[in-house]
Write a structure and sequence with these properties.
Order of helices and strands of chain B: HHHHHHHHHHHHHEHEEHHEHEHEH
Mean pLDDT of chain A: 85
Order of helices and strands of chain A: HHEHEHEHHHEHEHEEEHEHHHHH
Largest sheet of chain A: 5 strands, parallel
Strand content of chain A: 5-15%
Helix content of chain B: 40-55%
Helix content of chain A: 40-55%
Distance between the termini of chain B: 56 Å
Shape of chain A: elongated
Largest sheet of chain B: 6 strands, mixed
Oligomer: heterodimer
Structural class of chain A: alpha/beta
Number of helices of chain A: 15
Number of strands of chain B: 6
Chain lengths: 300, 415
């Protein structure tokens, strides 16, 4: 069952979700669905890497499960945990039953054997507290799994991900290997804080997103803020693109462009005069030195 | 068609992009789902499956142009209305799809481009062996299309010559304290990357071990309330493994530069292991370069740093002055968690070494490590004042090859 018929279809369906993209982004997305491969998305902050997963889940009407990575993230937080409390409660409630169970055992070894037979009662999926990864794998309907900012996790966690990503399965010592019921669509994002391992890259399809070209960004702004004047949108986007070309400390992201455009609409600004800039530039730029520099030197 | 992909993968490998067999299979697989008539999608599909690092994209682009397009390079001058139109306005697609629709046009187009090897659509049916092999697959348009696409055997050979051959064996004992041939530098960067990855992994192991300390009675009892006073969870005390702040002072004058850049590379690669790291370069003045490392390719940044006017790269190194300036401006930013690493040959050019400044710094920081890229026997000869600075350091090490660099890395991580 293919969710998208063609690359064009992806572009259209993403468009309905308010995500405007060209074939360069749509092709990998189409392929990840066809080839059942995870997609690794890299690019500067704020170009809409995470949004891809959201648009995927929106356009396919699938639930999105998100795993935010951070330093020190480990299996018990990402995969599963045993619910000790519940296990203990069960043990206590079943105390009486144990008498019945062991009633006809005459020797110690016989009772141990009888207990052994019931062993699985305590390590069954009942007591498993699924975390995002396991949730995605066990989900009966297909989901979109977003593993956000993989580069922030530790190397060990990255290696651990390999099994999940290549076979969509996880091994739990007490239960054996659990295989995905439905193939989840996996999107990994990375800001290139550190180099991801070759092994991880090999298992994924790769997409590098850069800042969009002028016309595409204008379309994005127009889409997100329908009441904006088209001239103003053009001015805004061209201004932002020039700033990005300027080697500033923190280049403005797409979401910041939109915020800024929104601010200008709210303030009823007609064009980018110096006054307007000096009062609203802090919506776009988040670094004091950058702002000073642009106010001083202008953008040309 | 699989053969085409394999050949293309080989071309890519020759130009230095690492491609595994699994990735080549993905690429072939991907082409089954993409309409090959649209060049952009075809290219993106290959790229998605084969290129996994942003830095490799230019190499891929070049290989793709060479491999799948009419050989433009043969006639440099009239290098193609085709290619330019394509890049400018992708929607128009004047190349492949149009050519297919209209055989006449293709013939003309090919002649205009002066390409002799282009297969004419009419003739194509009979003779080329490629096409016969392909037809017995599943009769996909792709096969036919690919057969028509010019495959430049010579191009792949041409690429071999220009392409770099990645290999870094036996890099460990190469003397870094000398001019290195340009190709070598890249190999060494790669080796440093690997080395840093190893160091970091070891360090992570250390973090994990840090968990298995003594039993923390208080927390274990607290936790046991949840489980009906049964201490189900035994909580161990975490041995504290603090992350240090790393402050690097690098003399980059003259030949020290060769070693300095590898050291800076190492520091950059180990970045995550410190709470914070700051880098300063100096010749006779201090210049902070911490913010210069912003994700651009490392060699680009490093070359740019060298040319920074604030540095006076070709000046005489003056340790005393640089240290005094650091003492004045940055002393307050040092703390007990800082590890100060100084790289320099301690050749002060007969200037006043002002070693007291180093002593002041040492009082404030956790550790001072001095790395000297000169062979030990030359220390304290001529204008070298290593013995003046030495007593104010916790470690003084010779650092002139990768093996020593690795020890340094270990030492810094363990500090």
């Amino acid at each position: 069952m293919a969710a998208y018929n063609s690359v064009q279809d992806v572009i259209q369906k993403f468009d309905t979700q308010g995500y405007i993209c060209g074939a360069d982004i749509a092709t990998p997305i189409y392929l990840m669905e066809q080839l059942r491969k995870p997609l690794l998305v890299e690019g500067p902050p704020g170009v809409g890497k995470t949004e891809i997963a959201k648009a995927l889940s929106g356009s396919l009407d699938r639930r999105m499960i998100r795993l935010q990575c951070y330093e020190g993230l480990d299996e018990s937080k990402a995969l599963y945990e045993w619910e000790y409390t519940k296990q203990l409660l069960y043990t206590q409630m079943l105390k009486d039953r144990i008498g019945d169970l062991l009633g006809n055992a005459s020797t110690l070894s016989e009772s141990v054997e009888a207990l052994n037979r019931e062993d699985s009662a305590f390590f069954s999926q009942h007591f498993l507290l699924p975390r995002p990864l396991l949730e995605a794998i066990l989900s009966p309907e297909p989901v979109v799994l977003l593993i956000d900012e993989v580069d922030r996790s530790d190397d060990e966690f990255e290696s651990f991900l390999l099994e999940v990503l290549s076979d969509f399965q996880v091994s739990i010592p007490e239960l054996g290997t659990l295989k995905a019921v439905q193939y989840p669509l996996v999107v990994l994002t990375s800001n290139a804080n550190r180099n991801l391992s070759e092994a991880l890259r090999r298992r994924c399809l790769y997409l590098y997103i850069d800042y969009p070209p002028v016309d595409q960004e204008i379309r994005i702004v127009l889409r997100k803020i329908p009441d904006i004047n088209e001239d103003l949108a053009q001015q805004i986007v061209r201004f932002v693109q020039k700033i990005r070309a300027l080697n500033v400390r923190k280049p403005p992201s797409i979401s910041e462009t939109i915020d800024w455009a929104l601010a200008l609409v709210v303030l009823n600004a007609q064009n980018l005069s110096r006054d307007v800039l000096s009062t609203t530039l802090n919506v776009l730029m988040k670094d004091k030195e950058d702002i000073d520099r642009i106010m001083r030197e202008g953008v040309r | 068609m699989i053969e085409r992909v394999v050949e293309f993968v080989r071309t890519l490998r020759r130009s230095g992009v690492r491609v595994s067999i699994a990735e080549a299979m993905d690429a072939a697989d991907a082409l089954r789902y993409t309409p090959i008539t649209e060049r952009r999608i075809f290219k993106t599909a290959l790229q998605t499956a084969l290129v996994k690092e942003h830095q490799d994209l230019p190499a891929f682009d070049a290989a793709f142009e060479c491999f799948f397009l009419v050989q433009l390079s043969d006639e440099d001058g009239e290098k193609g209305p085709d290619s330019e139109e394509n890049e400018g306005a992708p929607e128009t697609q004047p190349n492949l799809s149009n050519e297919l629709d209209d055989g006449e046009q293709e013939g003309e187009g090919a002649q205009e481009d002066g390409d002799q090897e282009e297969k004419m659509p009419g003739e194509g049916e009979g003779e080329p062996s490629d096409e016969e092999e392909m037809e017995d697959e599943d009769g996909y348009d792709v096969e036919e299309m690919l057969a028509r696409i010019q495959v430049g055997d010579q191009t792949s050979e041409a690429m071999t010559e220009t392409g770099k051959q990645p290999q870094h064996r036996g890099t460990e004992d190469i003397d870094l304290y000398q001019e290195l041939p340009p190709g070598q530098v890249e190999n060494l960067y790669e080796a440093v990357e690997e080395l840093a990855a190893n160091l970091v992994t070891k360090r992570s192991l250390r973090y994990r071990k840090a968990r298995s300390g003594q039993v923390d009675i208080k927390q274990t009892i607290q936790r046991s309330f949840r489980t009906g006073n049964v201490p189900f969870h035994i909580i161990r005390k975490r041995r504290k493994v603090n992350k240090h702040e790393l402050v690097v002072l690098c003399d980059i004058s003259g030949s020290v530069w060769e070693v300095a850049r590898f050291f800076i590379k190492l520091v950059q690669e180990m970045q995550t292991q410190f709470s914070r790291s700051r880098s300063f370069l100096f010749v006779d003045r201090i210049n902070e370069v911490t913010d210069s490392f912003d994700g651009r390719p490392f060699d680009e940044i490093i070359e740019q740093l060298k040319d920074d006017h604030a540095l006076n790269f070709f000046g005489l190194s003056d340790f005393g002055r640089a240290f005094y300036q650091f003492y004045n401006e940055y002393l307050m930013s040092l703390s007990r968690t800082s590890v100060l690493v100084i790289l320099g040959d301690a050749r002060a050019n007969w200037f006043d070494p002002q070693e007291w400044t180093l002593d002041e710094m040492k009082r404030r920081v956790h550790q001072v490590i001095w790395l000297n890229p000169e062979p030990k026997q030359y220390w304290d000869t001529d204008d070298s004042v290593m013995s003046k600075y030495g007593p104010h350091c916790d470690h003084v090490l010779e650092c002139r090859n990768l093996e020593q660099l690795m020890h340094v890395g270990e030492l810094i991580l363990q500090s």
